[in-house]
Amino acid sequence: MAGLLSPEAARAADDAKAFVADHEARMKPLEIEAAIAWWNANTTGRDADFKKKEEAQNKIDAALSDKPTFDKLKAIKAAKDKGELKDPLLARQVDLLYLAYLEKQVEPDLLRRITAKANAVEQQFNVYRAKVDGKELPDSEVRNVLKTSGDSAIRQKVWEASKGVGKAVEADLKDLVALRNEAAKKLGFPNFHALMLTLNEQNGDELLKLFDDLDALTKKPFTAAKAEIDTRLANKAGVRPADLMPWHYHDPFFQESPAVFDANLDAPFARADINKLCQDFYAGIGLPIADVIARSDLFEKKGKSPHAFCTDIDREGDVRVLANIVPNEYWMGTMLHELGHAVYSSKNIPKALPYVLRAEAHILTTEGVAMQFERFSKSRAWLEKMGVKVEDGPAFDATAEKTRRNQLLIFSRWCQVMLRFEKGMYENPGQDLNKLWWDLVEQYQQVKRPKDRNAPDYASKIHICSAPVYYHNYQMGQLFASQVHHAIAREVYGGADPKAVIYIGDKRVGDFMRKKVFEPGRTLDWKGLTRHATGEDLSPKAFAKDFQGKA
């Protein structure tokens, strides 16, 4: 009879259901424990909390590395690959669990060594503060000096001090790279970079092709934009454009657009309540986040991570943000970004979905949503409609438009450096990594290396240590952000100009995001979700319109 399963299919379904149920029963408590430990470590910086974080991760690794359990899963996946598993939700869970368990199929001692080393490096980042003339500078002060000082000597001191964390973690990072590569090779992969792409359902050749296309698309407009930026930076510093050095840019990595144009984008935020703006905005589009704010840790304190992140503790709605808010445009954008992650979480992914599928489709899709909302921090129309006074609106508009456009270009070029550096580092860790880093910075960012400098500046970027083979997803997220925003302009606003669409007070936007982006959870991979949300495969087309004004 139609609809009856064959004995093989029925057995495959029973085996898969039993495995998934057992996995959730074993792993959910461990994952919650690890998430809380991770949160505590990053909010306090205490040795004891980092020790608990390490211990919690070791428990997860031990559970996922269990060989008899993996052998059961391999048999279930083999049946699934033969077409015996007919339930698509079960099949998707089997695929995802196979990748999660595969990563851990190495000796437990090796996993513990990797976790211990990664934990030590992350703690050093949390407690490190740039020190200039005997004074410790928080990250916000480093950024302020690089943004405002006209003294090249002071800028150089602060920039070099900010890079000091690279020297502090260099040896541990090299050990960590070796350990990660050792694990990858034991699993049959040439290196850790190749392993991570596979675990994240990405193809290395397709990825390089995409980034080569982006290089060709952005090189000419980036070069033109940078020439204008360099002229203004040089005038302020009293040097020739050809003599600009890395410390003349406004952040330590030149990953952001320098504030060199006429209007001060920070000015509207000097007296603004960034938390309230975020709460009002997200509530207005039907995605309230007041409960997230209440659980979060949002201001600077000693020992706390100087960065920002959002974490979903339990896939049941306990979502939190760590931040270090200062009243400026950077932190307005950062909070919109992190709360974008928050709304794309178990707050809005249906609890009816199985636990394994109750998360974002992919890291690039959650980064894309975060970037989609982040962009409003540079919109005068958005600010004024949110009740923030903007002095000299036309000047703000002109500066914001250039800054927004330049930001897309600058960040794209920075992501080229990160992708290609990490690929090169894991493929050949014994090479001169300092040289590789600066070769890529000069090629893609057109920033000169300091003469005679031989320091591990690559190691001062926390993602290389603590979020390896992740960064390319930010740029893919930018493509996703543009594509989803253009779909909203087309489908919600009747084909309006995407640059004029600002969402405020429009719950149709929240409905679109829930139905098209959030509700599928991990039932779809990133390619499938992009098609579901936008009707097209991921491409640079919408992104190009956002920085070029044309396709």
Radius of gyration from the alpha-carbon trace, in angstroms: 24 Å
Strand order of the largest sheet: 1-2
Q: Roughly what percent helix?
A: 55-70%
Number of strands: 4
| Overall shape | globular
Strand content: under 5%
Order of helices and strands: HHHHHEEHHHHHHHEEHHHHHHHHHH
Largest sheet: 2 strands, antiparallel
Explain this structure:
It is globular, with a radius of gyration of 24 Å. A two-stranded antiparallel sheet has the order 1-2. A two-stranded antiparallel sheet has the order 3-4. Strand 1 and strand 2 form a beta hairpin. The chain has helices at 7-44, 47-65, 67-81, 88-102, 108-127, 139-148, 152-162, 164-186, 192-199, 204-237, 274-284, 290-295, 329-343, 363-374, 380-385, 393-427, 433-445, 462-466, 472-491, 507-518, 526-534, 541-548, and strands at 130-132, 135-137, 309-312, 319-322. It has a domain at 7-105. The chain has 551 residues and is an all-alpha fold.
SSE order and pairing:
Blueprint: H1 7-44, H2 47-65, H3 67-81, H4 88-102, H5 108-127, E1 130-132, E2 135-137, H6 139-148, H7 152-162, H8 164-186, H9 192-199, H10 204-237, H11 274-284, H12 290-295, E3 309-312, E4 319-322, H13 329-343, H14 363-374, H15 380-385, H16 393-427, H17 433-445, H18 462-466, H19 472-491, H20 507-518, H21 526-534, H22 541-548
Antiparallel strand pairs: 1-2, 3-4
